[in-house]
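hiii, so i know i said id send this last week but things got crazy w the move. better late than never?? heres the sequnce for the chain we talked about at the cafe, plus the structure i predicted for it. fair warning i was half asleep when i ran it
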Amino acid sequence: MKTYYSSRYASSPKDVKSYDTKRLREEFLIDTLMVEDKISIIYSHFDRFITGSAVPKNGSLILETIDALKSEFFLERRELGIINVGEAGSVIVDGVTFTLEHKEALYVGQGNKEVIFSSKNSDTPAQFYINSTPAHKSYPTKKIGKEDVETIELGAPETANARTLRKYIVNSVVEVCQLQMGMTTLKPGSSWNTMPAHVHDRRMEVYFYFEIDPNQAVCHFMGEPQETRHIWMANHQAVISPPWSIHSGSGTSSYSFIWGMAGENLDYGDMDHCKINELK
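okay and structure toks below
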């Protein structure tokens, strides 16, 4: 089998208060990504958001539909975002080839029937990180190169959260139904991402952590602002953040993460901020 697939159900904040570490990780941690010669797909019932990866090492990989979609092909009612965190590779969309270098992205619109992933060099394969959401309209497929992203500098060294945020798949860069994706990189000496924390009850989010040294980790914080929990994250792991949850983390060394959102609107700034001194 070249496709790994599993589902995660939505959960209530009242229930999550009683979760122990094992249960918390079972429900929200995604640790099945970036497996060579496989497509991994995790289907969340929060906004029907799909998190996945494709690592074509010894040949091409075809994105096939899964049972949860009840569709003839994967993008029959969906749109797709792809960011390559590995070496150079290509994505063929209905016969058109898009070359993606390291940290370049591709938006694939609803209705495209065939998506094929391949690597330029099998010794150093591409590592395609995937997000997908339901879509109600077909927009053109578009590559987003490094020169196309919107870049924002955030935070400060004094608060240990100096970071560079890059918006790849947002409505100001590409026409899109509801999917949003971007990348944040912590600057040397900083450890905190998304601090001050926030929630946005109108959208869910998934964080994919990468560029973490094998001997280091990121502690990801989630939960209601006054009822927080934490999950320790390793390289190439992702975490599901429900709409009612904060999503913030602090690393023991430098790291990057890709954020993906879906939900009620496309307003990136639509956040309900949480005061740091009121978190519990």
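btw The radius of gyration is 18 Å. thought thatd interest u
miss u guys!!
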